Amino acid sequence: MKDPERLPDTRVKGRAEGRGSKGAPSPAAFAGLGIQLVVSILLFVYAGRWLDEKLGTGPWLLVAGAFLGACAGFYAMYRSLMAVTRGEGRDAGSGEGKEGGGGSGG
Known about the structure:
By secondary structure, the protein is an all-alpha fold. It has a domain at about 30-85. Helices cover about 50% and strands about 0% of the residues. The protein has three helices and no strands.
C-alpha cells in the first residue's frame, strides 16, 4: 500500500542538476576536471614519446604531445566549466533539438 506521508519526488532540483543550494555550481561538478587535465597531458606525452622512439625524432614529438595534451585538456575543461555554469549539467543534449527539429521531414 502507498504511504500517504511519502511525497513522490522529494529531491531538490538544483542539487540534482549540479547546482548548490544558492544556485552556484556545486563542488562535485568540478571534482574531476583536474584529473581530466592531467590524464590528457600524460596521454599525449606518452604517445609523443612512443612515436619518438619508433621514428627516431628525438624529443620533438614528446614536446608536441605535451602541448597538444595541454590544449586538449584545457579545451575539455573549458567546455565542462561552460556547461556547468550555464546550467546544462550532464544532460546537455536532452534539451537541444526540440525547436526546429521538424524542418527536414520529407
